[in-house]
Amino acid sequence: MPLTIAALNALDRAAFVAAVGHVFEHSPWIAAAAWEQRPLSDIAALHAAMCAVVAMAGEERQLGLIRAHPDLAGRVAMAGQLTPNSAREQAAAGLAALSAEERARLTGYNEAYKTRFGFPFVICARANKHAAILAAFPGRLANSPSQEIATALAEIDKIAWLRLCDVITS
Q: Is 69 tagged catalytic?
């Protein structure tokens, strides 16, 4: 059930983390740190506080956040072990209904990307359909590692925004 920002501000740390800790994939530490910045005026302030935690976390923690994301339509998805958010987002992008050729292409891209950068390709699936996701790989594979870290973190910020909008009412 969606919460108001006022109700969220009133929660203790554990309840706050339980309510919004999932918006950054497998990284409740972000919500725990953002809790310190209460009271938050609105959903944009909450998002900004959480994104600031990520920005100040340092590269190792940021890489851990990126690595917490599953491959798109990968082994975890095929085994039905995605988080509920990731499962909905990947399905909405059409990744659960790829043709055999598309799945093979995506698998090849995922492997090439992880080999090059050491972390999974992250894109806001809710803002893209599978064709756009497949089309994004070649350009992103040409980026430098620092460009890809920045791009992945920007995509994670978009994912978190949409997930917060699912949880917090205006």
A: yes
